[in-house]
Amino acid sequence: MAKETKDVGFIFDLDGVLVDTAVLHYQAWRRLANSLGFDFSEKQNEELKGVGRIDSLNKILSWGGKTMTEEEKINAATQKNEWYNELIRHLTTKDALPGAIDFLTAARNRRIGIALGSASKNALPVLDRLGITDYFDAIVDGRSLTHNKPHPEVFLKGSSAMHLEPSRCAVFEDAEVGIEAALKGGMVAIGIGSKDTLPAAQLHYDTLKQAEIDQVISLIRQNNP
Ligand code: BG6
Ligand code: MG
User: Fold this and answer.
1) How far is the centre of ligand 1, averaged over its atoms, from the C-alpha of 63 (Å)?
2) pTM of the entire structure?
3) Is 21 left (phi over 0), alpha (psi -120 to 50) or beta?
């Protein structure tokens, strides 16, 4: 990456920002919950956004009033992941969320650094199925993380891989824990989705279709007086 021409970076969460996989995670977790004899709502599923695999399982088990040994948890999470993988096999470019590919293209044309900052261990196959892997200067995903969001590790690794100070980066997130992580890391936090669910974000867009590069860059400039 030519550092001298990229003085700001955009870090994108994956699930819920670039692709609508939240519904697929929900289907797979629901199948697991149903196999254990209970169900959970779409509203409860909101609480799983941005949350790592085992933490998600722990929340779901508590909703169903179930307990598991650590070994049983690993088996259950592996089963859910197999079901989830069956679902993401069918993803195509058409499953990118509205405006996502156009926004990545526009950012690349403006010579803005582009990184992925996802908790998911399935990020690579999802990017590949969407055909957007090549847009990224850096990919940080659940395979290399020690801490889950709201810890800022994922985004700090993203900015560092782009050779940019965190303050020169904006994070695009659909999860409250992700907005918290971006702010903790000293980055500009852009909420994608409902303003009500992401009150801490510095700027909101319903989807990347409404996002404006100049507005985001102006916030980054304010972040670097
Ligand atoms: C996040 C999703 O991106 O990744 C969560 O919002 C998911 O719902 C988490 O649990 C971990 O994903 P995976 O694919 O590693 O199980
Ligand atoms: Mg997300």
Assistant:
1) 18
2) 0.95
3) alpha
Please indicate whether residue 174 is annotated as part of the active site.
no
Helix axes 53-63, 22-35, angle to 10 degrees: 50
Are residues 99 and 82 located together in one domain of the fold? no
Q: What is the pLDDT of residues 159-199, one digit of tens each?
A: 999 999 999 999 999 999 999 999 999 999 999 998 888 99
State yes or no: is 15 an active-site residue: yes
Cα dihedral 213, 214, 219, 225 in deg (nearest 10): 130
pLDDT at 3 > cutoff 50: no
User: Is the CB of 25 inside a 6 Å radius of any atom of ligand 1?
Assistant: yes
Give the structural domain span for 102: 9-20+93-222
Q: Say if ligand 1 is within 6 A of residue 121 CB.
A: yes
Look up the CATH number of the domain holding residue 44.
1.10.150.240
> Ligand 2 center to residue 152 CA distance, Å?
14
| pLDDT at res. 225 | 84
Query: Looking at the structure, do residues 168 and 65 belong to the same domain, yes or no?
Result: no
Q: Which of 7, 13, 128, 141 is catalytic?
A: 13
End-to-end, the C-alpha distance of the chain in Å comes to 25
**Residues 60-107: pLDDT tens digits?**
999 999 999 999 999 999 999 999 999 999 999 999 999 999 999 999
Ligand 1 centroid to Cα of residue 128, in Å, is 17
Same domain membership, residue 40 and residue 27: yes
- The reply to whether ligand 1 has any atom less than 6 angstroms from the CB of 193 is no
